[in-house]
Amino acid sequence: MSISLVELESIVRAAGDIALAHFKDLKNIGLTKKRPRDYVTAADVAVEAYLKDTLTEKYPEYGFWGEESGQSADQTNRWIVDPIDGTHSFTKGQYFWSISVALEINAELVIGAVYAPALNDYYCAEKGKGAFKNAELIKVSTEDNLENAMIATGFACLRSYLTENNLERFSRIAQHTAGQRRFGSAAMDLCLVADGQVDAFWEQELNLYDVAAGALIAREAGATLTDFSGKPGIFPKQILTTNGLILEQLLAYM
């Protein structure tokens, strides 16, 4: 069965409406911790439940992997979902959080959608057909000098206990750039590279559901995706996304 991107957008935006209903009532949000500093809310659970039920009903030939509910059915061809990427930002009433939905077929990402409901920005891509933001074609930036570049990264809660927790890497890189940002949603960070709003993004110790949709969107917009040694590919444990023009300059400090 072919996927209707129009139908998928309708589904993802409906999931966004569920998230926004919770976002507008944060005083009563159900908040628990899966692990120290790792939050899950009633919104995460509700959004994922809706996406799982709807996607598996409309496209029963695909399995499902969600951050909260785990893996179900055949995982050869599957939806990969992060119901709210940036939960901590969400709980603080900040706008930089997103819903991430990707379709993977035979280990290849073929469709990606990232929706930021609080900003009403919808990013999507289909393999080989370009990347779009609110139906407009997007491309990576043309900045070719790291000293003029704006870069983004993350310091996720779970990495604070690791010996290599990104602080030293950030300190090395930041002094060679014009600006640094930490938005709190890896899915959105990847889309911001795709849209040319930042010139590069890196993070480590993520999961595939954090980056699957955003990585495809970034790649379709012309971004490079590598690990910290420059090996091409999508590696959630070491993901480096750039506009391509500053890749080698960044690798010198990774």
Helical fraction: 25-40%
Q: What integer is the average pLDDT?
A: 93
> Ranges with pLDDT <50 over ≥5 residues?
none
Say what the CATH topology of the largest domain is.
Fructose-1,6-Bisphosphatase, Chain A, domain 1
Radius of gyration: 17 Å
Biggest beta sheet summary = 8 strands, mixed
User: Rough shape?
Assistant: globular
CATH architecture annotation of the largest domain: 2-Layer Sandwich
What is the CATH class designation of the largest domain? Alpha Beta
Instruction: Specify the CATH homologous superfamily of the largest domain.
Output: Fructose-1,6-Bisphosphatase, subunit A, domain 1
Residue share in β-strands:
25-35%
Walk me through what this model shows.
The strands form three sheets. An eight-stranded mixed beta sheet has the order 4-3-5-6-7-8-9-10, with helices on both faces. It has a five-stranded mixed beta sheet with strand order 12-11-13-15-14, with helices on one face. The chain contains seven helices and 15 strands. It is 30% helix and 29% strand. The mean pLDDT is 93. The protein is α+β, with helices and mostly antiparallel strands and 254 residues long. The protein folds into two domains: 134 residues, 2-Layer Sandwich (Fructose-1,6-Bisphosphatase, Chain A, domain 1); 106 residues, D-Maltodextrin-Binding Protein, domain 2, CATH 3.40.190.80.
